[in-house]
Each structure stands twice: as C-alpha cells, then as structure tokens.
C-alpha cells in the first residue's frame, strides 16, 4: 500500500467515523505530533523504525486526528523470533503497512470515551478492532498500559502486544 492509498483509506474511514460514542476531539497536545512523541520515547524505537520502513511517518505527522495503539519494544520483542526483522525487509513492506495501520484508528479517542464501553472501531488498515473498556482497557488481546498520551494530531495509547490483522 503506497502513501496515496493510505491517505485515501484514511479519508474514507474518517468520513465513516467511529462507532457510537467514539467521535472525540483532538486532546490538548504536549508539544509534538504522534511521530515526534514516539520518536522521543526510547520504548517506541522499534515502532518508529517500522513506521519509517513502511513509509508511514508523513501520514502520522499529518493533521489527523489519529488514535494510535502503540506497541512497546517489549511487545515487538515478544513476537516469534525473526518476525520483526522479516517485516522490516523491503520486500515485506505491504505486510508491514498492514500490521501498522491496524494499530491506527481515525479520530482522537481518549480513555474516558472508552471507559465502561465495548466497541468495534475501524482501523486505517480496514478491519475492525474490538475495544473493551469494562475493566481497564483492552484492544483485541492487548492491554492498554498507558493511556492518553496527547499529541498535536491525536492520541497514543501504549499497548503490551502487537496486534496482527487477519
């Protein structure tokens, strides 16, 4: 998927919006966009490397707003041996884009909007994520360990596992 396709998918999903109760507004920023915040946090170095390899840096530096469920380095390390190296190979760029855009939801969704809710939200990748805010917040099989890292163009929620699309 090239940048134009990614941006077209973003525009289409933004028009569709999120499911009920998940529209949200851009939270107050803490001085940087999503990529700036991730780049300034050593715990996201694998994610930042992957975003660069996938050609998604410009997209996530765009206006948004976006909600990113951001896996930590530990989450990437927990994948089967060799998975990250394989995904970072240029010939696997389309697969990497699919994995990374599965972690991004159009719109800024904060934890207070998720609290007590069970939702299905559309991703930039095109599939739906199950978000459960009934007891903490989980996304598919991942726990949100840090919520509401505000950016100028959205919000980051740190998760403890890498989400893999079907």
Helices and strands: which structural class? alpha+beta
Biggest pleated-sheet summary:
7 strands, mixed
**Order of helix and strand elements from N to C terminus:** HHHHEHHHEHEEEEE
Shape: globular
**Over the alpha carbons, how many angstroms does the gyration radius reach?**
14 Å
Q: How many helical elements? A: 8
Q: What is the spatial order of strands in the main beta sheet?
A: 2-1-7-6-5-4-3
- Number of β-strand runs: 7
Low-confidence stretches: 1-29
Structural write-up:
With 166 residues, this protein is an alpha+beta fold. It has a single domain (3-159), classed as FAS1 domain. The protein is 34% helix and 22% strand. The protein starts with a helix and ends in a 7-residue tail after the last strand. It has a 7-stranded mixed β-sheet. The protein has helices at 3-16, 34-39, 45-54, 57-60, 73-77, 83-87, 93-101, 111-114; strands at residues 66-71, 104-106, 118-122, 128-132, 138-139, 142-151, 154-159. Residues 1-29 have low confidence and may be disordered.
Features:
166 residues; alpha+beta; FAS1 domain; 7-stranded mixed β-sheet; 8 helices; 7 strands
Topology:
Layout: H1 3-16, H2 34-39, H3 45-54, H4 57-60, E1 66-71, H5 73-77, H6 83-87, H7 93-101, E2 104-106, H8 111-114, E3 118-122, E4 128-132, E5 138-139, E6 142-151, E7 154-159
Parallel strand pairs: 1-7
Antiparallel strand pairs: 1-2, 3-4, 4-5, 5-6, 6-7
Helix pairs in contact: 3-7
Short overview:
The chain has 166 residues and is an alpha+beta fold. The protein contains eight helices and seven strands, in the order H-H-H-H-E-H-H-H-E-H-E-E-E-E-E.
């Amino acid at each position: 998927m090239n940048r134009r396709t990614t941006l077209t998918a973003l525009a289409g999903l933004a028009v569709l919006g999120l499911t009920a109760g998940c529209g949200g507004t851009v939270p107050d920023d803490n001085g940087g966009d999503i990529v700036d915040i991730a780049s300034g946090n050593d715990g996201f170095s694998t994610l930042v490397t992957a975003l660069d390899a996938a050609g998604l840096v410009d997209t996530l530096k765009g206006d948004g707003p976006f909600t990113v469920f951001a896996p930590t380095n530990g989450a990437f390390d927990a994948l089967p041996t060799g998975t990250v190296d394989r995904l970072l190979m240029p010939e696997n760029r389309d697969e990497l884009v699919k994995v990374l855009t599965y972690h991004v939801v159009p719109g800024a969704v904060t934890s207070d909007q998720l609290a007590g809710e069970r939702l299905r939200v559309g991703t930039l990748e095109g599939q739906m994520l199950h978000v459960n805010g009934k007891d903490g917040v989980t996304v598919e099989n991942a726990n949100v360990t840090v919520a509401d890292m505000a950016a100028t163009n959205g919000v980051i929620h740190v998760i403890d596992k890498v989400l893999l699309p079907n």
